[in-house]
Amino acid sequence: MFTGIVTAVGRISKAEPQGDGMRLRIDAKALGMDDVGLGDSIAIQGVCHTVVAMDANGFDVDTSRATLLVTTGLEAGRDVNLEKSLRLSDRLGGHLMQGHVDGVGTVTAFEDVGGSWRLEVEAPAALGRYIAKKGSIAIDGVSLTVNSVEGSRFEVNIIPHTRAVTTFRNLARGSRVNVEVDMVARYLERLSLPGSGERA
């Protein structure tokens, strides 16, 4: 589990074929590796990964073909948002997230509105039903509040601090971003389905 509060920006220094997927090397000295162990979960650009090798300067993860097909931003040379998995003693500054990306959206506007930035994203049409005004959403692993929504297009506000300490500083119109909807919306849909309470 994660909170969407990015703690460091790293860089994918290598992306090498591994079976039908890739092994990624993440340069992550700014993240702090002292409390990271093999098997730990770290969100990379909003995507949950398992640490399979590490040293003081970064770590390696394996990512599957299935993951690569439904995400973006996991290529060599890319800056990536990083967040260690949530501990029970941590503050929940954002919202509960699983690191399970629901789809890739496209930035349709990213503009300075005086003191903050307006970010508008067109999500895949199937995700529109899960996005609600004043609800939570994650973009590239960053927890945000939806200001407005029409269909599957939604708008959030980015304060200067968030833009400065995340990969949002690299965004522009046309950028592709990972989108994870609020998990509560997923469970509510499941509970509302006919027969969802029946035993198998």
Task: Give the SSE map.
Blueprint: E1 8-18, E2 21-27, E3 41-44, E4 47-55, E5 58-63, H1 65-69, E6 79-84, E7 103-112, E8 117-122, E9 136-139, E10 142-150, E11 153-158, H2 160-165, E12 176-181, H3 183-192
Antiparallel strand pairs: 1-2, 1-6, 2-5, 3-4, 3-6, 4-5, 7-8, 7-12, 8-11, 9-10, 9-12, 10-11
Describe this structure in words.
With 200 residues, the chain is mainly beta. It has two domains: 8-84, Beta Barrel (Elongation Factor Tu (Ef-tu), domain 3); 103-189, Elongation Factor Tu (Ef-tu), domain 3. It is 10% helix and 42% strand. The protein has helices at 65-69, 160-165, 183-192; strands spanning 8-18, 21-27, 41-44, 47-55, 58-63, 79-84, 103-112, 117-122, 136-139, 142-150, 153-158, 176-181. A hairpin with a 2-residue loop joins strand 4 and strand 5. The longest helix has 10 residues, at 183-192. It is globular. The model has no long low-confidence stretch (mean pLDDT 92). Pathway: Cofactor biosynthesis; riboflavin biosynthesis; riboflavin from 2-hydroxy-3-oxobutyl phosphate and 5-amino-6-(D-ribitylamino)uracil: step 2/2. It catalyses: 2 6,7-dimethyl-8-(1-D-ribityl)lumazine + H(+) = 5-amino-6-(D-ribitylamino)uracil + riboflavin. Catalyzes the dismutation of two molecules of 6,7-dimethyl-8-ribityllumazine, resulting in the formation of riboflavin and 5-amino-6-(D-ribitylamino)uracil. Its EC number is 2.5.1.9.
Helices, by number, come to 3
- What is the annotated CATH architecture of the largest domain? Beta Barrel
Number of domains: 2
Largest sheet: 6 strands, antiparallel, barrel
> Helical percent range?
10-25%
The coarse silhouette is: globular
The unreliable regions are: none
Domain Lumazine-binding: 1-95, 96-192
GO molecular function: riboflavin synthase activity
InterPro entries: ATP_synth_asu-like_sf (IPR023366), Lumazine-bd (IPR001783), Lumazine-bd_dom (IPR026017), Riboflavin_synthase-like_b-brl (IPR017938)
Function: Catalyzes the dismutation of two molecules of 6,7-dimethyl-8-ribityllumazine, resulting in the formation of riboflavin and 5-amino-6-(D-ribitylamino)uracil.
